[in-house]
Structures are given as structure tokens and as C-alpha cells.
Amino acid sequence: MIEVENLTKEYGEFRAVDNISFTVEKGEILGFLGPNGAGKTTVMRILTCFFPPTKGKVMVAGYNCFEDSLNVRKRIGYLPQRVPLYEDMKVDDYLRFVAAIKGTPAKEVKRKAAKVMDDCGLSDVSHKLISTISGGYRQRVGIAQALVNDPEVLILDEPTVGLDPKQIKEIRTLIKELAGRHTVILSTHILPEVSILCGRVIIINQGKVVAEDRPENLRSESAQRMLLRINGNAPLIEQELSRVGGIKGVEREPASGDTHGFVVVFDDEKRGRQGIQAMIEKNKFELVEMRLLEVSLEDIFIKLVTKEEA
């Protein structure tokens, strides 16, 4: 549905996007993740034909973004970071206006506006001025205007920024319901959002793709960490753990009486587990607890971004 190949965007000597490539399949929700200033919004604006790339090729639904931008625009719904709403219009009037300027046939405008109001939970505020509705409803109106022409592709740039927890939950539920019917790119720096909503994630930093996979695969491929609680001499235990093959790091945890805690980081989990068992038996330490610690998407993100900036 979307193909991005060797995409680069430069502003003078500054390279905002640096030779990135990725694809998005039909019906997929792709998380586009990165810190502020990573290049996410620049990529979104190129995909939506706001401006051209310096180099590279972008195809949406089989059309080239800059050789056939009108056909691309017909197939894309876009929610920018700052929602473009006319506050002096009523919700239903605004959505009919947007439907009309997006080329919806006159006899279909009212029906399509009513449908997106129903889909986005706006029926109760349809006759209210946009200036009088809450932030959560405004965001829903923003999503509704992106959906009103029933686009094949939906691009959402930071859709929950500035909302309260209740509003965030409502918008996330709405986005999740769009999967399958629309291909969605969700640009965000909010990590839990990606875990909840996205089947696949691309992490971008300093204009480059630093990781691309399903969230669960990124976790499994990241370095495994294990918590150990052992009775014995803490300095000796730490020294012995640091000598075990397959372990690349040992961190001390708070002690509880004679039981000392350690977090070990594996570079070879199988070898490390075997080495820990042998070390404990050799030194006659008493093992109280041994369990793997789940690696969060936040841990992976920080690790990748820090690595790129180093």
C-alpha cells in the first residue's frame, strides 16, 4: 500500500531524513516512533504531498507522490499534529464542508459526514460550535475530517498529544477500530501507544531508521536481563557473576537481610544460565530467586537512541 525507497530530505546543509526505506501493508497499523526532532513529521509531510523529498521515491496505493500527487491526495486522510479546525463552524457543517472540498459528490456529502460522525462518536456534539467542545472531541473531529472521504490510507501525527488520560483512551480505541478498513501510519513519541495499537514499529532517530519489527520481536531480540537473589557474600557473588561466560553486565540490587539482589545482562542467555548454575554449585551459594525481567519498549527505545547519538 505504501512504499518508501531511499527517502532523503535536506534543508540546506541539514539532513532531516537520511536515506530511509520501508513499506506498509494494506490494513496495517504501523507505529512511526522517535524522539522529538527525529524526522517523523517531515516524513509524514512528504507522504501527504506537502512538499517533495530531496531524493528518493514514495508510492501510495500505486501512485507516485509527486508525479501523480492528486491521485495520492484522494487516497490519503491526514491528521496533522495541530488539528486544522474552523472553530466558528458547527461540527456537522465543518465535516460537510471538508467532504465537499475533498471531491465528494454533492448527493453523498451529508451521508458521508453523518457516517464519520457516528464512527467517531460525534453525534452528540454534531450541532455544537467547534470552539465549545472539549479537546478530546476536537481530536475526534480531526480524525473524522481525515476519514470523511473514506481514504485507503490514514496518517496520524501525534493524535493523542495534549489530551487527558480519559480522552487518550477514547482516541486509542477509535484508532484501533480503524485497523483492517484503513492502512494507518501512527507517528508518535509515546511508547505505550505503539505497544497498544501497532502491529509493527519503525524507530527513527536523527533522520535514520534504527529499528523495524513487531514490538514483541524487538523485545525478544533485545538483550535479556535476569534477576538473581542469592544468599552469601555480596562482593564475592558479584565478582563470580562477572566472570561467567555469556554475561556482559552485572548490576547490584538492594539487599534484604542476607539475601542480595543482582541483575545480570546476557549476551548469550543459554551459556549464561548454565554458567550461573555452575558458579552457584561451585561456591555453594544459596539461590533464592532466579527470573527473567521483561524488556519494555521504553528500554529498547532508549538503548537504540542512545547508541545512535553516541
Structure explained in plain terms:
The protein has helices at residues 40-47, 69-74, 91-101, 106-119, 135-147, 165-178, 191-197, 215-221, 234-242, 269-283, 297-309, and strands at residues 2-11, 14-24, 29-33, 55-60, 63-64, 76-79, 153-157, 183-188, 200-205, 208-213, 225-231, 247-256, 259-266, 286-293. It has 310 residues and is α/β, with parallel strands linked by helices. It folds into 2 domains: 2-216, Rossmann fold (3-Layer(aba) Sandwich); 223-294, Alpha-Beta Plaits (2-Layer Sandwich), CATH 3.30.70.100. The chain has a 6-stranded mixed sheet with strand order 6-7-8-3-9-10, with helices on both faces. A hairpin with a 2-residue loop joins strand 12 (247-256) and strand 13 (259-266). The longest helix is centred in the C-terminal third of the chain and has 15 residues, at 269-283. The two termini are 35 Å apart. The relative contact order is 0.13.
